């Protein structure tokens, strides 16, 4: 059976793409952010995952407000990036893992998640940038992907508890996949940030640190909150932390325990409190 070897999570701010393109990793502004990544890249080079299942939220590149699936699973042979208007270079397509996509889709439907299946799917900064961060120096990261889009953008959003359960179902499915592959799950976005309205620039360090702590020791902690409570605590875009929760549900599926590989927290990059975490399944 396939092996689920760990979970990753990182913020996905578009400006990161510009910083990588311009080689600004050592600039004083960027260094505390980029310095979090080498220990995790080193770990990934050792454990060599074949496939990454990515929980992320599309920001209008693939799904617009007129058609907004709650959960959408990619089932494409490759996933192209396209210009989102941030002025950052578009990245090369990432190869899909079709066999795992359909395995996950079948398992999720059987477990009563009424997902949308996408045999064509553009991926935006929330899916592309983490690969540039975790596999620096690679034109294309040496992995295949299955992207799973979670609506964190337009209310009503799925509840934190439902998202955690989605993650658990994905984790179970990966472990039941008849394959010799090594799989990592990834959640992108967050931590606290709000880009618009009266609270633009809102950051909540106290909440973020509690959330990061819960990711290690009490993974279901955030599921006690409603989506409106999460918006209040983390900001309108801070609810992207739902993607982290899905990742965490996946790694702990079946009662597996985890060990922290490395983490980082740095405020701010752009308007966002950045978080980073890698967990290894023990
Ligand atoms: C920013 C953060 C995001 O999560 C995003 O999707 C776009 C922009 C920002 O802080 O600039
Ligand atoms: Fe975002």
CATH superfamily: LigB-like
**What is the averaged pLDDT score?**
98
User: From the 3D coordinates, which CATH architecture would you assign?
Assistant: 3-Layer(aba) Sandwich
Q: Using the coordinates above, name the CATH class.
A: Alpha Beta
Q: Provide the low-confidence segments as ranges.
A: none
- Rg calculated over all Cα atoms: 17 Å
What fraction of the residues are assigned to beta strands by DSSP? 15-25%
- Work out the helix count: 9
Could you give the count of β-strands? 10
* Number of structurally distinct domains: 1
The H/E string reads: EHHHEEEEHEHEHEHHHEE
First and last CA, distance: 17 Å
Ions and ligands:
3,4-dihydroxybenzoic acid, fe (iii) ion
Question: Overall 3D geometry?
Answer: globular
Task: Assign the structural class, choosing from mainly alpha, mainly beta, alpha/beta, alpha+beta, or little secondary structure.
Answer: alpha/beta
Main β-sheet, in a few words? Answer: 8 strands, mixed
Helix content: 25-40%
The name of the CATH topology is Protocatechuate 4,5-dioxygenase, Chain B
Spatial order of the strands forming the largest sheet: 6-3-7-2-8-1-10-9
């Amino acid at each position: 059976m396939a092996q689920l070897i760990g979970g990753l999570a990182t913020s996905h701010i578009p400006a990161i793409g510009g910083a990588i393109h311009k080689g600004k990793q050592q600039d004083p502004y960027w260094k505390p952010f980029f310095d979090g990544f080498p220990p995790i890249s080193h770990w990934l080079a050792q454990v060599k995952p074949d496939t990454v299942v990515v929980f992320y939220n599309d920001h209008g590149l693939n799904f617009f407000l007129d058609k907004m699936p709650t959960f959408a699973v990619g089932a494409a042979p490759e996933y192209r990036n396209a210009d989102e208007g941030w002025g950052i270079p578009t990245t090369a397509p990432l190869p899909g893992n079709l066999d795992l996509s359909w395995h996950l889709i079948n398992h999720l439907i059987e477990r009563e998640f009424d997902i949308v299946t996408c045999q064509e799917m553009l991926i935006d900064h929330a899916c592309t940038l983490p690969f540039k961060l975790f596999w620096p120096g690679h034109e294309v990261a040496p992995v295949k992907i299955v992207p799973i889009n979670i609506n964190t953008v337009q209310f009503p959003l799925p509840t934190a508890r439902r998202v955690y359960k989605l993650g658990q179902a994905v984790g179970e499915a990966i472990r039941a996949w008849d394959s010799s592959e090594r799989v990592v799950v990834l959640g992108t976005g967050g931590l606290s940030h709000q880009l618009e309205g009266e609270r633009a620039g809102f950051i909540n360090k106290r909440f973020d640190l509690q959330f990061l702590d819960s990711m290690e020791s009490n993974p279901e902690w955030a599921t006690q909150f409603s989506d409106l409570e999460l918006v209040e605590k983390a900001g309108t875009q801070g609810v992207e932390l739902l993607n982290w929760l899905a990742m965490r549900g996946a790694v702990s599926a079946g009662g597996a325990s985890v060990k922290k590989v490395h983490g980082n927290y740095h405020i701010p990059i752009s308007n966002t409190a950045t978080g980073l975490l890698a967990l290894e399944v023990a």
